[in-house]
Amino acid sequence: MNPIIPEPIARQPWQMLIPLFMLVTFGAAVLYSAAGGSMEPFAASHLVRFAIFLVMASIIAMCPRELVKLLAYPAYIGVLLLLLAVEAIGAIGGGSQRWLSLGPLVLQPSELMKPVIVLALARFFDALPIGMIPTWRSLVPAAGMIGIPMAMVLVQPDLGTALAIGFGGAVVMLLAGLPMRWFLTGGALALIAAPLAYFFALQDYQQRRVTTFLDPESDPLGAGYHITQSKIAIGSGGLFGKGFNNGSQSHLNYLPEPHTDFVFATMAEEWGLAGGLFVLLAFALILRWGMQVARRAPDRFSRLLAAGMTTTIFFYVAINLLMVMGLAPVVGIPLPFMSHGGSSMMTNMICIGTLMMVSRWNRLAPRGRIS
Question: So where are the chain's domains?
Answer without folding.
Answer: 14-62+212-299+311-361, 68-202
